Amino acid sequence: MKARDGMYIDGAWRPAAGQDEIEVVNPADEEIFGRVPAGTAEDVDRAVRAARAAFPAWSATPPAERSARLAALRDVLTARKDEIAETITAELGSPLAFSQAVHMGAPIAVAGSYAELAATYAFEEKVGNSTVYQEPVGVVGAITPWNYPLHQIVAKVAPALAAGCTVVLKPAEDTPLTAQAFAEAVHEAGFPAGVFNLVTGLGPVAGQALAEHRGVDMVSFTGSTAVGRQIAATAGAAVKKVALELGGKSANVILPSADLGRAVNVGVANVMSNSGQTCSAWTRMLVHSSQYTAAVELAVAAAAKYGERIGPLVNARQRDRVRGYIEKGVAEGARLVAGGVEAPRERGYFVSPTVFADVTPEMTIAQEEIFGPVLSILRYEDEDDALRIANGTVYGLAGAVWAGDEAEAVAFARRMETGQVDINGGRFNPLAPFGGYKQSGVGRELGVHGLAEYLQTKSLQF
């Protein structure tokens, strides 16, 4: 799509307050193919004021009508699926088939789920001699990342609108055209002016202004743990509600009774998906010592299939960051068995699918989020050892457990300190709560739990 030269504020595209722009680069060929305004604190203020003005009417809109608008949004996204997928591929570098299936499929499903929840959720209930009401928090500042640019927007904006909140979105600067396409879809779906507003810009400028703004009642952020801490501190000074979906270093635990071949192949696919740029990726594969050699061989063979199938990383900074982690892994004594730092192509921000063996729990590549196509394989001696390793990071976002007996896998998963665990390759569920323990965040997204984040409770006693 062609880049818009303004901000979507109060139901229309309006000129930015400043003249600075953000260049949009195709990570596959390093060519600039668009520019968007770099929003300022003034732009954020205009957007928040519009959201505040729209809040009384939207919060009073019957849930059935809010549901109808969300259903219309789902339908517009569905109709524009191929066009927006091409935009995501151009901005993010994701292979087009993956953009169509995942980058578009997931947000369309999530938008539909909130259309249904808006109509069916119990916003009012009787508790003894009280009536308890669930009411919208107010104006939400949504700050979203680049790795799943549309899904992360919909996962915040759809439940906020379903709850009766109004929204100001500050998307990642690497993928602003996807956010502009979403704003166009909101407009086409017929939402009232000011209910949704978009300000493109840099995190330290527009993002900070949004988090600090006195007119914002809640900040919902997805991104790095370091930035999440800053936003939490900023919001905390004004006692604003926050929802944070942060980093991960998820463990894929393969118990001895599991189908080793399937567990390894699915595990490698999980890490390489979206070029490794997934916060919930199972980047630590834990294998019993008796099966370790076989697992490494299987992982190397599986990784080789992705050499020409995965896209680039989002920008040069991210590519260099991932290469730095690979170099650190080698320096700390891990055994590089696939991939490495050598560029697989002359142009583009590509990193080869990389696998490390002989990784120990204290190594940097086993502790820190790399956000690239890098898998670390660790050995364990018994289940207690596996649990210690699995829980041995500051993160707790996701994970996986494989076992021949489902009950065995569930028993292990219940002891993991993480917000979501897939059992024997369990499929993604857009209605299941997603979010982390420990430094992986605060709050949940998706389904009824995601809707609850944007509500506050009032009780009347009779």
From TrEMBL:
GO terms for molecular function: oxidoreductase activity, acting on the aldehyde or oxo group of donors, NAD or NADP as acceptor. It comes from the Bacteria. Residues 13-459 form the Aldehyde dehydrogenase domain. The keyword Transmembrane does not apply. The active site is at 245. SUPFAM superfamilies: ALDH-like. Coiled coil: none annotated. Keywords: Oxidoreductase. Signal peptide: none annotated. The keyword Oxidoreductase applies. Pfam families: Aldedh (PF00171). CDD domains: ALDH_CddD_SSP0762 (cd07138). Belongs to the aldehyde dehydrogenase family. This is Aldehyde dehydrogenase.
